Each structure stands twice: as C-alpha cells, then as structure tokens.
Amino acid sequence: MKILWLQSGGCGGCTQSMLCAEPRPLFDELRDAGIEFLWHPALSLESGEEAQQVLEDCAAGRLAFDVLCVEGAMLRGPNGSGKFHLMAGNGRPLTEWVERLAGQARWVFAIGSCTAYGGLSANTPGNPLEACGLQYDTNTLGGLLGASFQSRGGLPVVNIAGCPTHPGWIVDTLEKLALEGLSVADLDEFGRPLLYADQLVHHGCGRNEFYEFKASAEKHSDLGCLMENLGCKGTQAHADCNLRPWNGNGSCVKGGFACIACTEPGFEAPGHAFQQTPKVAGIPIGLPTDMPKAWFVALAALSKSATPKRVRDNAVVDHPVIRPAVKKAQK
C-alpha cells in the first residue's frame, strides 16, 4: 500500500509525532504490514524536480498510489485563489494539488486536527487565510473537497484528528486499512477512526478517584481532578490518550495539564483560557458529553458529601499526604 504525503498550513508536529511510534521502529512496522511511503516531504530522498515529477505523475494517473495523507490546514486565500500557499518550485497552489491528487487516491486521510477541521489556522480573527479542513470547516461539512466527497475507495475523508495526532492512531489506521480494510462503520460522526475515537480521554485517567468524589485541584501542581477549576475536557474529548499512553508512558493529564480536547472540531477557540473552567452559578459549563446537567449536580453534591479525608486532602497537594487505609484482618 503506497502512501503519498503532503504538508500544508501546519507545524509539522503530526509527522514528528508519527516518528515516535512504538514499540517497534516506524518503518519496520509499516514495511511488515506492506505499507511504504511513495513520497513524504520530510522523509523521502526525492526533492526538487524529482519530487515534482512524482507528484505530477500521481496527479495525472501515470503513477499509482493508494492513500493521500495531508497534514496541515488548507489555505484557500486570498479570495479563494490558494496563493497563500504555493508549491515550491512550480508556483501552483497546494489546494490545487490536493484536489487533483484526491481525485486519484483510493483513500484520503486528514492527519491532525488542522487538516481535519481547519485547526489553529482557521481560527485566527476573521480567518484571513481562508483556512479549512479537507472535508470540514470547523464542525460543518464542506471544506476544500466538499461535503459529498468520496474517494475512489468509497469513503469520505478519514480524519485522524489530534493536535498532534498520536502515532498509534496513524499507524493503526493505516495497518487496519492495509490488512483488514476500512469502512464507514469504522468511523464516527466526524470521520474519526473508532479504534481510538470510541473512547474518552476520561477513560483510564489516573485522577478518576478524585473525579468520582469531586475532589478538585486548585492549582496545576495538585493531584486532584482538573475538570472543576482548571479546564479539563477529558469527559468530552474522544480519544484513548490515557489507555494508550504517549511515548509509552504519559498523557497531558498525567503530566499535570488539563485535556483541551484537541481531537474535537473547534478545540482551538473555546472562548476562554484553556486552563480555566467557565462556570454558571458555580457549575462547570463543559459537562460530560452524555450526562444531563441535573444528574451531574445531584451526583456532585452526593459525592462531595461522601469524600474520604484521604481523597479530599490529597487533591490539593502535589504528592500524597495520606495513604489508603490498611484494613486489619478480622479475627
């Protein structure tokens, strides 16, 4: 399975993340699954005229490839011309290249939230770049390729969203496509692969005991739940970050930073500081995705009234000060 990879309006962080794939070296893993890069701007030897010839042959249908992976937002400006991002060496808009190549690809993957939904580039004031995703403009269908786009393999754009996206999400999705196939049933409502988007970041969080008792952190070094005061959206973010650790060990929450829901459309413009929880009458606005507000309020009140002293005291310090009790054996 041959992959053609383009980079557009982004930081290149998703490629950097992919290179950290574990537990095996990335290229060994892909090769054993029958996957290879036909061309990647940062990883391939071809450059200059050689690279342009590869792209032209692919776009014209002379050189077959399977998956078009695009990283970074589509920059359509100014005035729809695409001239804010021209391909080096030929002066043609990258949006034009993407449209031509998408028509030849069997499958099209948006790598990262910028390519999926527009990301940071699309949420600068007034969006002067006219940035968008491949098939979404934030959370609205459309984007560069249009709401009705389907690749030659019969799928819409596959949105491997994240900022950056987890290396395992990229590798696992490519391997599933190569070894088993990929269908619409394998994607969620926003085109994200269910192999990671059928979970919430909240699942597997090491702070879940504090969440259950609504024992909240007050500052970033505290051990308690980050939802009530420090902006954590782990109960709303579709990803398996705490079940599939980054670099074999960590996650944002494990590192003491609130989840900012980077796999969700529009995460980059929440309307408030990332590490801050907006509230109405003391109740956080961002409640769990599938929990009615009245239930949450009732449960929170009950939980706080039953919070063990160990959990309450440990929540507002940077290391456990009270250990779990040892139950003495009954005689």
Describe this structure in words.
With 331 residues, the chain is an alpha/beta fold. The chain folds into two domains: 2-195, NADH:ubiquinone oxidoreductase-like, 20kDa subunit (Rossmann fold); 199-319, Cytochrome-c3 Hydrogenase, Chain A, domain 2 (Irregular), CATH 4.10.480.10. Helix content is 27%, strand content 11%. It has helices at 13-18, 26-32, 48-59, 94-104, 113-117, 119-122, 167-179, 194-197, 208-212, 227-230, 293-305, 309-314; strands at residues 2-7, 36-39, 67-71, 74-75, 107-111, 131-132, 136-137, 140-141, 158-160, 279-280, 283-284. Strands 2-1-3-5-9 form a five-stranded parallel beta sheet, sandwiched between helices. Strands 4-6 form a two-stranded antiparallel ribbon. A hairpin with a 2-residue loop joins strand 10 and strand 11. The N and C termini lie far apart (66 Å).
* Biggest pleated-sheet summary: 5 strands, parallel
Number of strands: 11
Poorly predicted runs are none
Number of helices: 12
State the domain count.
2
Summarize the structure.
Helix content is 27%, strand content 11%.
State the main characteristics.
12 helices, alpha/beta, Rossmann fold, Cytochrome-c3 Hydrogenase, Chain A, domain 2, two-stranded antiparallel sheet, 331 residues, 11 strands
Q: What is the topology?
A:
Layout: E1 2-7, H1 13-18, H2 26-32, E2 36-39, H3 48-59, E3 67-71, E4 74-75, H4 94-104, E5 107-111, H5 113-117, H6 119-122, E6 131-132, E7 136-137, E8 140-141, E9 158-160, H7 167-179, H8 194-197, H9 208-212, H10 227-230, E10 279-280, E11 283-284, H11 293-305, H12 309-314
Parallel strand pairs: 1-2, 1-3, 3-5, 5-9
Antiparallel strand pairs: 4-6, 7-8, 10-11
